[in-house]
Hints:
Radius of gyration: 17 Å
Number of helices: 5
Low-confidence stretches: 139-160
Oligomer: single chain
Amino acid sequence: MNVQMVCLADQYISQVNTMFPGSVHDAYILRNSSIPYVMGQLQWHRVWLLGDSGYPNLSWLLTPVQNPRTRAEERYNEAHGRTRRVIERTFGLLKARFRCLHMTGGSLFYSPRKVCQIIIACSMLHNLALRRQVPFLQEDGPDDGVVAAVEPVDSDEEEAEEEDIDNRDSVIQQYFQ
Length: 177
């Protein structure tokens, strides 16, 4: 199962996509979701999403610089990595709060459709728990090695458009020089 999630800085999950099997590339899922439309509407408000290197660099989706050549690009990559850890912590918290989503809690022996519904329900309950400030009651806490490792994937998608690279470069120049 390939799950694409978008979360805010406070770990509130704002979008979940469970419609594609694990063999589908992240960039394909993104292209076939509502995210490009939504982000296109927000683009003029200088709102960006951060993605790993498995995603294309777009005007609204910032990815790491593959081979940083300047100190500004290195600082950008460091800030990008620190900020992206929020989604990794969110995955870890979600899996720790709902052990059925983590491999140590067992497997979900249901149809793929039912598993997708369970993931979405757990995401909604996660948001409700955050909104209602429900304390996390696990003794070891959410960072007990449950964090989902998000490994960069070599993208076999088309090269990012020149303007999208220019947008990332302008972000680097404006904020990391």
